[in-house]
Amino acid sequence: MTDDGVLEVSLHVAAEPETVFPYFTDPARYVEWMGRDATLDPVPGGIYQVRIKDGVEAVGQFVEVDAPRSLVFTWGWAGDEEVPPGSTRVSITLHPEAGGTRVVLRHHDLPSQQQRDHHGKGWELYLSRLGSVLAGQNPGEDPNT
Q1: Of the residues 38, 74, 135, 142, which has the fewest C-beta atoms closer than 10 A?
Q2: Closest CA relative to residue 39, chosen from 50, 53, 24
Q3: How many angstroms separate the Cα of 72 from the Cα of each of 15, 26, 62, 81, 144?
Q4: Domains of the chain, with CATH numbers?
């Protein structure tokens, strides 16, 4: 977590930004590392919806899309009063680094330290899974589905 209360998770992956970016915008690639189903329309105002398991869906909309450098989408949980759909913001930047890409995910506006801790563990898990996919490895079944 950063000093401003924003959750930050980063990971170096052995792939160029042009290869990494579609894993955040193409539903078929997204579910290789997170969730069981995704509806993604990666244009400003387009839907961001990822079903993790029955009854658990992350819902928001894309705010900014700058392929292959960055994207921003709103985030929240369907049916959740503490982190409702679209109530927080996730920004992802992709920086060329050491023959690959530094993926930096920043999650803004989470309402409590407990939620920052919970989401931090989740994003660490999922970025690790993304790294495995980009390395040509099978990350195994999503443990949360």
Answers
A1: 135
A2: 50
A3: 21, 15, 6, 22, 23
A4: 7-134 (3.30.530.20)
Supply the DSSP symbol for 139. -
Helix (H, G, I), strand (E, B) or coil at 125: helix
Rounded distance between C-alpha atoms, residue 20 and residue 104, angstroms: 12
Nearest partner of 125 among 101, 141, 108, judged by Cα: 141
pTM comes to: 0.93
Q: Tokens for 61?
A: 């909309």
Q: What are the backbone dihedrals phi and psi of residue 116, each rounded to the nearest 5 degrees, phi first?
A: -65, -45
* Mean pLDDT, rounded, for 99-105: 97
Model pLDDT for residues 23-74, shown as the tens digit of each residue: 999 999 999 999 999 999 999 999 999 999 888 999 999 999 999 999 999 9
- In this prediction, residue 3 carries a pLDDT of 53
Please give the structure tokens belonging to residue 76: 């929240």
- Interatomic CA distance for residues 68 and 87, integer angstroms: 25
Angle ∠(81,87,93) on CA atoms, nearest 5: 140
CB 52 within 8 A of CB 26: no
